[in-house]
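> forwarded from #structure-qc
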């Protein structure tokens, strides 16, 4: 008997941002919104770590992500605050690279 999943994690390519005809694919089926959000964050963290280079600024890393990274999203969105991949990637880039010099 198949288990009903409540949340689907889909992925689109940032290189096709704003292209309504660009394909996206299903990455996973999750039982809860929290599980789906955790998966989305892990995907972004993995991409950022793989593309980070020593002495890279958070701004450059984030720009690379928004140009070439995979952007996960959750269908349907959970109750409360929706997951925003770009907002999370921006914050995660700063954590990985450190704050810019003042």
């Amino acid at each position: 008997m198949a288990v009903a999943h409540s949340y689907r994690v889909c992925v689109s390519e940032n290189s096709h941002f704003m292209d309504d005809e660009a394909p996206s694919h299903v990455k996973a089926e999750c039982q809860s919104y929290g599980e789906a959000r955790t998966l989305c964050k892990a995907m972004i963290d993995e991409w950022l770590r793989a593309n980070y280079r020593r002495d890279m600024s958070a701004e450059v890393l984030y720009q690379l992500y928004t140009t070439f990274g995979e952007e996960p999203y959750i269908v349907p969105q959970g109750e409360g605050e929706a997951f925003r991949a770009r907002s999370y990637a921006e914050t995660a880039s700063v954590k990985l690279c450190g704050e810019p010099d003042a």
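QC bot note: The two ends are 58 Å apart (CA to CA). The beta strands are 7-13, 24-30, 70-75.
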